[in-house]
Write a structure and sequence with these properties.
By secondary structure, this protein is of the alpha+beta class. About 20% of the residues lie in helices and about 35% in strands. The protein is built from 6 helices and 13 strands. The strands form 3 sheets. The chain has a 6-stranded mixed barrel. A hairpin with a 6-residue loop joins strand 5 and strand 6. The protein is elongated, with a radius of gyration of 24 Å. The relative contact order is 0.12.
Length: about 220
C-alpha cells in the first residue's frame, strides 16, 4: 500500500497548528541507520487510509519526493472528539530484520462446524488479533482462523493456527492462549440475552422520550 508524504522543515506547536489548519498532518519517520525524518501528509487521504485494516497491519511504501521507504505504522494521535488526525509515526523496516506486529484474526467457516451445525452451539471469539514476529516479507495482512472443525467442548488455541513463512506468535509468557471456544446452547442464549437491552429499560426510555420537560 502506497503512502504519499512531503518533507517538512517547520517544527513546534505553532507550525503544527498552521499545518493542520491547512489540511495537513505532521508526522515522523524513524528507525534504521538514518536520522529521523519530519514529514507531512494530506489529512483527508490519511484519515480514509486509517480506516483500512491493511494500513495498520502491512508493510507500507512511503514516498517522500523521489525517495521510497518501506515502513510500518507505529502510532497515530487523533482529536478526542473531532474527526481529526493530529500526528502520525512510521518506522522504517529492513528486509533482513524481524519485526513485531499485531495482526487481525479473520474467523471463517463457523457455520460448517459440528458445534454450530449439529449441536446448536455458538463459537465465541476470545481474541480478535495476535502479536507476531516475522521477517517483513512474511508479514500477513491477517491470519485466517478456520472454525469448521470446532466441536462441543472444544477450544482453538494459538498453537493450532497454521502460520506462513517465518511467522511466530508472541505470547508474552502465556503458554498457548485460547483463540476461540464453543459455548453450549444455554450459554449462547445467556450471552445473546445479555447483549440485548432489557424490555423494561427500552419501555422506560421510550416513555421518557415522549415526556416533555416540565415548565417552571
Amino acid at each position: 500500500m502506497k503512502v504519499v508524504a512531503y518533507e517538512r522543515t517547520a517544527q513546534g506547536t505553532g507550525a503544527s497548528r498552521r499545518m493542520r489548519n491547512a489540511g495537513k498532518v505532521p508526522g515522523i519517520v524513524y528507525g534504521g541507520e538514518q536520522k529521523a525524518q519530519m514529514i507531512e501528509l494530506d489529512h483527508n487521504a490519511l484519515y480514509h487510509a486509517l480506516k483500512k485494516e491493511q494500513f495498520h497491519s502491512s508493510i507500507l511504501d512511503l514516498a517522500v519526493g523521489e525517495q521510497q521507504t518501506k515502513v510500518l505504522l507505529k502510532a497515530f494521535q487523533v482529536h478526542p472528539f473531532r474527526p481529526l488526525v493530529l500526528h502520525i509515526d512510521f518506522m522504517r523496516v529492513a528486509a533482513d530484520r524481524k519485526i513485531t506486529m499485531k495482526v487481525p484474526l479473520h474467523f471463517v467457516r463457523a457455520e460448517e462446524s459440528p458445534a454450530v451445525k449439529l449441536e446448536g452451539g455458538m463459537i465465541s471469539h476470545v481474541l480478535s488479533e495476535l502479536e507476531i514476529s516475522c521477517l517483513p516479507a512474511d508479514l500477513p495482512e491477517f491470519i485466517e482462523v478456520d472454525l469448521s472443525q470446532m466441536q462441543k467442548g472444544h477450544s482453538l488455541h494459538a498453537n493450532d493456527l497454521k502460520l506462513p513463512g517465518s511467522v511466530t506468535i508472541v505470547t508474552h509468557g502465556a503458554e498457548n492462549p485460547v483463540i476461540a471456544t464453543v459455548l453450549n446452547q444455554a450459554a449462547a442464549e445467556a450471552a445473546e440475552a445479555a447483549a440485548e437491552p432489557d424490555a423494561k429499560d427500552v419501555k422506560d426510555v421510550k416513555e421518557g422520550e415522549k415526556k416533555a420537560p416540565e415548565k417552571k
